[in-house]
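Quick start: what a row looks like.
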Amino acid sequence: MFRKPLYAGALALGSALVAAPASATSTLNESPADKTWKAVWTGSPANMTWVRREPDGNISCFSTDGVHCRQDVSNPNDASWTSQTSPLVCGQKLLKSEQKLSGYNDALEHHWCRTAHAVLLPPSAWTDYTLLGHDKLLAETPDGDLMCFSTDGKECSSVRDGKPVTSAGNVIPLEQVQPVVCGAFLHMRTGGWGYEEAGHWCTLPKIVKREVGKVLDRHDDLVLDVPPWTPEDLPSVIVRTDLKAGFPLEIRMDARFEQPYVYLMGAPKVPRGTVGFTVGGHNALHIDDEVVPVLPSVHPVDSPTFALSVSKQGNMCLFSGPTESDRLSAVSEANFLEHAWGAAVKSWHSAHAPARDWGNLIRLEGSPEHEATTVRIKALPEGPPSVTLHEVLILTARDVPEPAGAASGVRRKIPYLPDCGEKHWWR
């Protein structure tokens, strides 16, 4: 469930980030190419179409002229057809053809590209989004539009144990998919694009990483490689743990500063470092090797879910709340720790750099250039012998084509969280 937009403050850790856009670690475009033609029911009048996946991830149909699908051939895999094959390829190539459609996301009841792509996806390309509050199995088109598993192209199927099920609870074979695609197709169905409606399943983020059941002993850390990010990617780290009050855990991510910034004590700093928080005890904000303690009277007590999120302005925000079935509920206005972290930074700034504007001290550009980007979660020696990280999620905003579709070549990021940086505490 999505909450109302945040109007509380946030720590100013940067703006105008410039880095390559984030991408998921398991996208549909990684589906393996296959030279074998397969007969797939595509909902077209002819019902069956010979299709395969090309090396670039796009779907093609068997054709001998590169314009029309051949459905009168009994077996195009026969060697006699090899020299005559000139496949019709979905996506940009189809857009440039006389059809003027991508095939994946158009205002058409049926299209063989859309159905065949979903049918040929490996099971690993479908993700159960129940953990983010939506009982749906989701994947992407090669253009990046989000789609849900459906058997009629109208309603998304429910999910149980990671598999699509009927209303009676019977498992549905994946090859029976007729997907619902956000954007032009959904607009044709419902009059809405899906991406503009807060809380709609079309706004759900990419799950870049998910780690479950990791046990950290004292001094141990969990290091996760993540894609490069910018503020528009809205990267978030959600940690569900059995941490108790007084047992500290450190959560950091690599970052790149806009320019060498002024150290709080006056020394110049290099343009790369880490930013993050210590939570659970001895609470502190970390900016590279600078440590800003948090007032002890406001630290969270027995809050088993922590979330670190970067807003589109480049501000970093921390949240702490109860464990709930909807993981995104942790990143809500009710769980925002602005008063704790903002007050600590302001107090530190007043004592050590009263003549400076804290908002201009540190500006981030995003993740480090030309280097691996990581998120690090570390168990500190003051804690118990071990801490269990029940779940770690790394999320980013989805990158999709503009409503005009793939033909425009313009893309946009879909926000999935309230904007924790809409107001700044120092202003």
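That is the whole record. Residues 28-203 form one domain. The chain has a mean pLDDT of 77.
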